[in-house]
Design goal:
176 residues, 6-stranded parallel beta sheet, 6 strands
């Protein structure tokens, strides 16, 4: 297990060597892939960590910057023996985004980031608004609730189709 973890950290460090001002995506499922496309469109570099080896194999051929790594484990984000780079380039990153909705894992990632680079903004995804306050207290800059965001998008589309002006729709969304 130790050798596997050392290889995992080494692979991440190799992939992120020389990267700076990048975003660390924790998870490369549908949400992570969609966010990666948005970042690419904006010219923002990223490194995605995903704990699903099959997913990584599936996208490896396309040149996507995804490596195996469970970001909730400290050694993925932390320095090893003071000589190895912070594996995912945390010290050079401009943000971390947790793209999956596992609260326990998100809390672990927030704890590690707060210990290592407390000023780094972290955006966290969650299913509903149950854990928003706890995640914000743990250090999340933003928490995106799937149910809330889905409801807001549904409402905004409905209002637009009903002829409500865009400025008014945006005002309503901000209020919510």
């Amino acid at each position: 297990e130790w050798a596997g973890r050392a290889k995992e950290v080494h692979d991440i460090a190799v992939r992120t060597f020389g990267k700076s001002r990048h975003v660390i995506l924790c998870g490369y499922g549908r949400s992570g892939q969609n966010l990666a496309r948005i970042l690419e469109t904006e010219g923002i570099s990223y490194i995605a960590l995903d704990a699903d080896p099959e997913r990584i194999k599936a996208v490896a051929a396309s040149g996507v910057s995804v490596v195996y790594g469970d970001a909730s484990r400290r050694e993925v984000l932390a320095m090893l023996t003071g000589e190895v780079l912070v594996a995912a380039g945390l010290s050079r990153a401009q943000a971390v985004v947790v793209t999956y909705s596992d609260v326990k894992s998100s809390m672990a990632i927030l704890r590690h980031v707060r210990e290592l680079k407390p000023e780094l903004p972290v955006v966290v995804r969650t299913i509903d608004d149950t854990h928003i306050d706890a995640l914000k207290e743990a250090g999340a800059a933003e928490v995106v609730s799937e149910i809330m965001e889905g409801s807001l998008m549904l409402g905004s589309h409905a209002l637009m189709l009903l002829g409500v002006p865009l400025a008014q729709v945006l005002r309503r969304i901000r209020e919510v």
